[in-house]
Inverse folding.
């Protein structure tokens, strides 16, 4: 039981970070970012290159992942999403763009890094063992703690900084924010960069544990969608709740259902559908948000 | 007006002649019989895309057509291999079963809108794949293989469709079947869009509350439309399984569902024949880029993004404005 709890917190913290980026982009631009999983994989590969291949400090590699993805996100928003949103007659057209981007990132990763599974040396060795009730490697504890710190930092940033306030205003009501003197175009770009950066950060963190490979992008996006649906699209607290709930469900499923084969996700999907039938907007979402 | 009708029926006749006479003649003249398979695939995929387009027509983004195609493929495969049923009977049954599933699932999830519906349908594709892996009747990851080719169909001793196995060119037979189904589908779609139901759909696409307040039974309309859409998906899946003679859980994946959606976007959501054009362009575009080897995906996705920047409203939005004026 303690083991499930510990695994749930660890999984939930990293999932919540992935969902945060997705929900931020959705709240600001009404764009469902299909390429979010690919951004996560890209972040992992950047950290792999700097930390695993070039042997630079892990913190620096992580910073490079964040910067690369933030710049990429800003460029994508400015030169791809903003023009399409302005000129398209239906806002769903951005989904085609996002799907195209997901393919593009896959192709870029394939050309730059190949299709092999890549891993990096462990950050810290050793396994935490509390009387055989909770067993967890130290590096997982470290990554889990870093993820929680990042989430808290993100919440504080959104709550108290000027940029954070502007972004929240933008998410609430775009035209009202503009009337209050918020530079809508600039903060859309900042928000997209921030969302992409979060994906890169969690990719960089997780590469030390699970490694990274080309095929992880699509499934990660689907997981992120599930979390956002549980919590409610476009709500920051919802993304965190969704991430933690999915983390716990997965930890419980893997512990209890492993003898029945791979049915954890099937059960999660089915219960998600039933849940959404009762509460379509998720736990904390606005109706038809 | 009569001139316009004449022009349109002329266009349809030209299309049919190209489809059923000119293309087979050209292929047999050039000897490139592999094109039969490509064109058959395009025809079948455009049937499934037509279904997706129909859900777009009521303002829902459907990324779950792969699920219904997989359901259709499995139903037909199981009926043919385990129950020994004729393929021609299993084809409509596959579609009907997919429609039934769509009604059951649609009752709760059609209440969702926008990205919520898009995400849940995307998840649905994954659910069906996982179910196919878990349930015994689908034979797990090994799938159902060596499905027999479609047999003879005859009424009162009159052979309507010959046994595909005895033909020396079953590819041509599949080509004709797929094209015929495609023509029927799009004729039906055209009829549907210009019927009373089509008007109701358009009213829902603009504003569901308003449509509901003037007496449109929106719950009923959207279930019907979703069922028709999934029926088309099931038919397409069953056809595909029959051509490949095998069905696996990975036959239709999330990527296929996304592609069905892209076909519609690319062709243009405002035009009935958009999905057909979109499927043709995307499928052939992908095949043509095969020469580029490892850069295939890069160039393909780059072109897709570029197309979106230049023509955000789809390929068919290119057609000349004055012609658009006469058709309204």
């Amino acid at each position: 039981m303690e083991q499930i709890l510990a695994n749930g917190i660890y999984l939930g913290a990293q999932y919540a970070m992935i969902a945060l980026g997705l929900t931020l982009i959705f709240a600001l631009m009404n764009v469902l970012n299909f390429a979010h999983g690919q951004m996560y994989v890209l972040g992992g590969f950047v950290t792999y290159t700097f930390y695993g291949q070039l042997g630079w400090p892990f913190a620096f590699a992580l910073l490079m992942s964040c910067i690369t993805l933030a710049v990429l996100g800003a460029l994508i928003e400015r030169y791809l999403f903003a023009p399409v949103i302005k000129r398209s007659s239906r806002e769903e057209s951005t989904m085609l763009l996002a799907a195209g981007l997901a393919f593009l990132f896959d192709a870029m990763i394939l050309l730059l890094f190949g299709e092999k599974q890549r891993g990096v040396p462990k950050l810290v060795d050793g396994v935490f063992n509390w009387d055989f009730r909770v067993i967890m490697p130290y590096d997982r504890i470290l990554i889990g703690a870093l993820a929680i710190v990042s989430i808290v930092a993100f919440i504080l940033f959104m709550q108290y900084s000027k940029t954070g306030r502007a972004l929240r205003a933008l998410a609430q009501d775009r035209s009202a924010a503009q009337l209050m003197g918020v530079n809508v175009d600039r903060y859309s770009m900042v928000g997209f960069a921030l969302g992409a950066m979060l994906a890169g950060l969690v990719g960089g963190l997780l590469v030390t544990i699970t490694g990274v490979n080309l095929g992880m992008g699509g499934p990660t996006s689907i997981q992120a969608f599930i979390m956002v649906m549980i919590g409610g699209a476009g709500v920051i607290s919802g993304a965190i709740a969704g991430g933690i709930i999915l983390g716990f469900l997965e930890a419980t499923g893997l512990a209890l259902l492993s003898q029945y084969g791979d049915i954890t996700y099937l059960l999660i999907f089915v219960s998600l559908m039933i849940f959404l039938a009762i509460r379509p907007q998720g736990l904390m979402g606005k109706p038809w948000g | 007006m009569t001139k316009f009708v004449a022009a349109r029926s002329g266009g349809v006749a030209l299309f049919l002649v190209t489809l059923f006479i000119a293309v087979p003649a050209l292929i047999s003249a050039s000897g490139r019989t592999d094109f039969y398979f490509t064109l058959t695939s395009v025809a079948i995929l455009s049937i499934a895309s037509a279904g997706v387009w129909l859900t777009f027509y009521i303002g829902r983004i459907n990324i779950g057509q792969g699920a219904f195609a997989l359901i259709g493929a499995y139903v037909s495969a199981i009926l043919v291999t385990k129950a020994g049923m004729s393929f021609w009977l299993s084809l409509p049954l596959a579609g009907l079963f997919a429609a039934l599933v769509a009604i059951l699932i649609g009752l709760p999830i059609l209440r969702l809108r926008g990205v919520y519906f898009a995400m849940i349908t995307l998840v649905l594709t994954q659910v069906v794949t996982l179910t196919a892996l878990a349930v015994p009747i689908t034979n797990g990851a090994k799938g159902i293989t060596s499905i027999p080719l479609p047999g003879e169909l005859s009424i009162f001793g009159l052979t309507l469709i010959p046994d595909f196995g005895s033909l020396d060119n079953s590819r041509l037979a599949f080509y004709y079947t797929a094209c015929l189904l495609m023509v029927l589908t799009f004729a039906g779609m055209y009829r549907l869009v210009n019927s009373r139901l089509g008007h109701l759909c358009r009213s829902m696409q603009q504003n569901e509350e308003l449509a509901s307040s003037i007496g449109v039974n929106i719950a009923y309309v959207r279930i019907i439309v979703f069922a028709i859409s999934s029926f088309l998906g099931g038919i397409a899946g069953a056809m595909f399984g029959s051509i490949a003679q095998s069905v696996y859980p990975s036959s239709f994946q999330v990527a296929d569902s996304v592609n069905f959606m892209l076909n519609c976007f690319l062709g243009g959501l405002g035009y009935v024949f958009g999905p057909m054009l979109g499927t043709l362009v995307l499928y052939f575009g992908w095949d043509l880029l095969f020469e580029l080897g490892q850069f295939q995906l890069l160039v393909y996705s780059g072109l897709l993004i570029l197309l979106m920047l230049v023509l955000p409203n789809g390929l068919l939005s290119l057609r000349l404005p004055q012609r658009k004026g006469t058709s309204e």
Summary: The two ends of chain A are 37 Å apart (CA to CA). Chain A touches chain B through 48 residues (CB under 8 Å).
